[in-house]
Amino acid sequence: MADSAPQPNLAGSVTMRGEGMNRIETFVAAAFAFAVTMLVISVGSIPQSFEEFVLALKTIPAFAASFAVIVWIWHAHATWCRRYGLEDGMSIFLSSLLVFLVLIYIYPLRLMMQSLFHFLSDGALPFIFPLKTLEQARFMFTFYGIGFLCVGLNFIGLYRYALRRQEPLALSPYEVTEARYDVHVWVVAVCISLLSLILAWVLPAQWLSLAGFTYFLLFPCYTVLDNRHRKALAAIAVQD
Amino acid sequence: MADSAPQPNLAGSVTMRGEGMNRIETFVAAAFAFAVTMLVISVGSIPQSFEEFVLALKTIPAFAASFAVIVWIWHAHATWCRRYGLEDGMSIFLSSLLVFLVLIYIYPLRLMMQSLFHFLSDGALPFIFPLKTLEQARFMFTFYGIGFLCVGLNFIGLYRYALRRQEPLALSPYEVTEARYDVHVWVVAVCISLLSLILAWVLPAQWLSLAGFTYFLLFPCYTVLDNRHRKALAAIAVQD
Amino acid sequence: MADSAPQPNLAGSVTMRGEGMNRIETFVAAAFAFAVTMLVISVGSIPQSFEEFVLALKTIPAFAASFAVIVWIWHAHATWCRRYGLEDGMSIFLSSLLVFLVLIYIYPLRLMMQSLFHFLSDGALPFIFPLKTLEQARFMFTFYGIGFLCVGLNFIGLYRYALRRQEPLALSPYEVTEARYDVHVWVVAVCISLLSLILAWVLPAQWLSLAGFTYFLLFPCYTVLDNRHRKALAAIAVQD
Amino acid sequence: MADSAPQPNLAGSVTMRGEGMNRIETFVAAAFAFAVTMLVISVGSIPQSFEEFVLALKTIPAFAASFAVIVWIWHAHATWCRRYGLEDGMSIFLSSLLVFLVLIYIYPLRLMMQSLFHFLSDGALPFIFPLKTLEQARFMFTFYGIGFLCVGLNFIGLYRYALRRQEPLALSPYEVTEARYDVHVWVVAVCISLLSLILAWVLPAQWLSLAGFTYFLLFPCYTVLDNRHRKALAAIAVQD
């Protein structure tokens, strides 16, 4: 409801303070659009024969999953911009940092998704990145864990910054609840990536893939969090 | 008429609810702009001699046709954004899916256009993608058919979603008729791609190219549809 | 003066009807920005040694000249958008066509500028595109001539379209004069490219480079045109 | 304070004349977004093995530093646009020139940062660009010095242009002080690059790296400048 078309600021709605796009958002949108395009159109690998073409098709599931993750991050940032309309030094710093993190993680993300689909399809889908030792596999999971952790901390920073500015922004109680919910969303993401990081170093070789599957815990956690959030919003609505 | 510069909301006009560009549109515009640029400026193939330059020139017709298709899809999406100004979860999901589909289909589209111009020019224009067996050719037509089908279903989804929200958007009867017309436009596209898909598997080898030429049926179908639409709009204008 | 910051619509000023950027402009800006970026950052040619770096530096003058031409075209289009704010079918068609022309011409433009600086620097600046026969050189000049001709015709089309819509746009006499001036600007560009085209085929080998230098006629022609235009505007101001 | 969310124009605040993004900014944002993306996603170097991946990770510090410099320049330009909202010929010329300078310097910047981190990490971080002679090293520092000098002169030009237009823009005394401060910021940058340029040619081989470390003088200089600026602003606030 909070995310639909602009509405008057009733109790139970979020005022969109950043209706017009600002400079950060255009910069972020262009960088993200460019990044996802590069994910697909790998210039060096335009298929030159039918066989290469079929091989390229087999990377579509991994691409789709990576694309979804990037769009999720972009959307989370766009929602933040739209709600608070902040364009000051800290907002620009955190937004630039987010672009930086995404740019660094874009190819590794695709790699991880390829390994996931390689695993799920029992080898039918390709994975072109041979890991030779157990330590290399542990390193990869560590690298992804740190990346996801940083993205999570970045969003916690963005929402906490908005909460710290709740007076000049004149956030309603409803909006404060909304912002706190978003902090919790990303705290969960940070906890799960910490869990994955630990598992990447304590699990024996045959269970190591669990360090990757840990991220699927996001789905049940977010369902629980979302239910609790709806109840909290309902309680505020009753108060008014 | 509905598509010209903003007008007051008289009977027979469409209110532009999304005059200011929103985040989805900037993201989509940047991704599409990047995609068409990549179509032309294939980094790996900057001509280094006069002969290569002339060869590059011969791909211009196929590029022009692919460019026109991408701009058509972009324009269809931009019109949808401008009319309804929706920026909620479903709009972002469907718009991202569209970007995803276009990015996957951009090089194959160019390939198909090259094969078309290779055929039409009786071999004077180049086609650098050898298909060796009949099954490979059937596969290519199937792949394109599915892609075009998905783009069509995506637009049907976008317009049906706008129609489902006609109350909060306060669509006028004129605008409802307009939205339904756009659903029909894409239903026709879906039917034609289904026909092409069937032909790709039932036609004998010597007639297989008809599976590709099926898409030219779009032109007469759209002429008929457009005429019927004008009459429907005239009928509404009379009622007022 | 017409081109400076927004002013109230006094006699002698131009109303900016497209203050907010529309979809075409974002698409065009992204495509042009990407195109100029690709001009410089030729992915395949990141210098790997000091010698390659120095060679790359020698292409800067040609890059600067190409960059200036692209920015000129982009600026001319942005001015048109800003003045008339048109976003209908014909505007999108002509704007897309302009993007298409620029994308096709971006690498050849750089090539032509390289040959110019190679010539002006008496061989000190590099030109990596050997032309072996006289016919090849004539072909190159013809190709550039046609491209510049098409860009010119495209802009004539854009301004004539704005003039045809002068009633719904409510153009003032001042603005009509301004639009007509811009038509003349591009008619001059078209005439000069026609002259270059003719020279490319009638000049003997030793004078062929004159077909390229013809484009420098733009500078004196625009000075004359600009003076006449100022007088015409002064005459309108007197009438009011 | 001047850089935070829009505020009413009290004494001690800056009116944002360019709240809506204009065409130059979108063009600049898109070009810069592409440029930073290209910095990371070097198409030709997608890691194909674990060893290449680890090597790619080692370039992250140099990338982060280059990214920060580009974002700094972009932000400085975006702030200028937002404060003065100028979109005339001179603004477009200076903004285009800035894009041009950044595009030329983007890979060399990364190179210089690599050499810095190579030096700081005592060779643990890679530097893939062998300089063989002392003259080559002097040349590189000269090249960077000139580039930074040009960026600084460009910004001095932008702020001086805004000051020259202070009457039509109706700049308050507070805003004039603010603009003058920004001129000083870039005069310092120009002086430091001049100092680096001189050092690059007078220092003996063993001290040559000091020509690069000269740029770290920016940090203390900006601290001093910022303190003086705060006092000047306080003095104005007292006058009101």
UniProtKB/TrEMBL annotation, chains A, B, C, D:
The chain crosses the membrane at residues 26-47, 53-74, 86-107, 141-162, 183-201, 207-225. It comes from the Bacteria. It is a multi-pass membrane protein. Keywords: Ion channel, Ion transport, Membrane, Potassium, Potassium channel, Potassium transport, Transmembrane, Transmembrane helix, Transport. InterPro entries: TMEM175-like (IPR010617). It is found in: Membrane. The keyword Transmembrane applies. It catalyses: K(+)(in) = K(+)(out). Belongs to the TMEM175 family. This is TMEM175 family protein. It comes from Fluctibacter halophilus.
